[in-house]
Amino acid sequence: MATTGLGRARSRGILAGSGMTALWLMMVPATAWAQDAAPPADPPADAQTTPTPAPGQTNEDESGEVVVTGIRASVRNSINLKRREDSIVEAVSAEDIGKLPDVSVAESIARLPGLAAQRVAGRAQIISVRGFSPDFTTVLLNGRQQASSGFNRAVEFDQYPSELLGSVVVYKSPDASISGMGLAGTVDLRTIRPLSQAKSTVAVNLRGTYDQGGGRNADISKWGWRGSASYIGHNADKTLGWAIGYAHLDSPGHTNHTKNWYYQNYGGPTYTLSGQEIFAQNRRDIRDGIMGTLEWQPDDRLHSVIDVYWSRFKQHEVNRGAQWFSTQDVDGTTFSNLETETRDGNQFAVSGTASNVIPILRFDDNRRTDKLFAVGFNNEYKITDRTTFTADLSYSSNKRDETYLETYGGYGPGRFRPGRPTATTSKFRPMATRSTPTGASIMPTRARCRWATARRGAAGVMTA
Q1: Closest CA to 211 of 255, 166, 169
Q2: pLDDT tens per residue, range 332-351
Q3: Pick from 312, 353, 358, 361: nearest CA to 336
Q4: Could you say which DSSP state residue 443 is in?
Q5: How many CA atoms lie within 13 A of 345 on its CB side?
């Protein structure tokens, strides 16, 4: 189709040109052919030795066969996948066994044209195809629809370790051979087929992870690791093949969270910061995945495959911090020693002391566990060259167990009771503001606040 369209475009260009242009175009190929026909010059004597190819380059074995490996083989396999499909597809292939690019499957396919990844807690989790919501995308594993643990049909890709997949094909147009096509598109995750490998293979990957700046909460370490091991083999006749793989992920992460609530002038000329919060968030993701495949092909007519996949994904998030009002209306807070700046015609306090501040301490402990199980049995029997009988049985389940624990704590009596403790804060500075109509509050678009000191029962010094 593409070649025909290009030929038409060239034909129109020749017809639209002048006679001289047509004559010149006819002479150019003749010149190129004459140049191609000339024999190449002999290389110098010192260039006769064949250089050793770099990793990922082509190489020639003893039999004279050229073998392509590494990233070039990955690109070649992706192009072949697209070439063999009858539909409009995008494809990504692993560079080698257990070496699909990027940390997760979602990050690998998010670079394909028309696809975008949505990140949750810093990791790519779900995929949007052609701008549609992820709900309109169907996800398959070896051609079989997968159950989702989300609140809709959008499958969370971080439950599928990239080390256990061989390729991913994204269908952008309907295909009668695919069951459960999505409105926006269909993503087919494919594991390795043992009989497609030339020889038995063992692959082991091990990497370390360090969360720089993490470890603010002692519950979660800032060290992690990920590793995988896969074995692929077959019998001597290459009629029976098997593959098994295991992948583990232990990934820490953190977020330093600060927020300034709003500014108010309380009837005066100066707007002061009237509420802040500061939290230290740490999280830990632990995922275990197991893949198994048994493939049998005794002849060119019969082909049977059994696929089994299981994964468990644990997420633990800890959040500790404080939040407080610093208003005259709520806590009777007073401000002194203010330094002000004028922004968009309004006067803001950028530094000073706030007295009678009562912080509220907050602690969150959130845990979630997802368990995914999928099994499939596929049989193909080729009756004639044009008739094939196919039977496929599959089962997929996904279980989600989630717990949110959110606790608050304060200190001292309330506002109108005697003996209320006093706290002092300083160094509050708005980074940017935007103007609002007269009488409305001024809200900062970005701000930074430091909890500098506290008296009588404060929980220590906290700095953002």
Answers
A1: 255
A2: 778 888 899 998 889 998 88
A3: 353
A4: -
A5: 5
Question: What gap in Å lies between CA 296 and CA 276, rounded to an integer?
Answer: 64
Domain boundaries, the chain: 67-190, 195-449
Beta bridge partners of 353: 336, 426
- Tokens representing residue 437 in the block: 């109509």
- Among 208, 209, 285, 197, smallest CA distance to 245 is for 197
Torsion angle of alpha carbons 408, 410, 416, 417, nearest 10°? Answer: 130
* Residue ranges in the chain modelled with pLDDT below 50: 1-52, 54-58, 416-464
Tokens coding 399: 């279980």
For domain 67-190, the question of CATH label 3.40.190.10 is answered with no
* Contact assessment for residue 92 and residue 108, using Cβ atoms and an 8 Å cutoff: yes
Output DSSP code: residue 449: E
Both structure tokens of 133: 């919501």
Q: How far apart are the first and last CA of the chain?
A: 60
What pLDDT was estimated at residue 231?
95
Token code pair at residue 336: 């002194």
Dig out the tokens for 149 from the structure: 């643990």
Distance CA 200, CA 235 (A): 9
CA distance 125 to 116: 11
**pTM for this one?**
0.69
Question: What residue type is assigned to position 394 of the chain?
Answer: S
Please tell me the distance from the alpha carbon of residue 428 to that of residue 449, in angstroms, as a whole number: 5
Contact criterion met (CB below 8 Å) for 247 and 256: no
Q: How is residue 451 written in tokens?
A: 């909890």
List the beta strands (DSSP E) in 300-359: 302-325, 334-343, 346-355
Output the six-digit token pair for 263: 């500014």
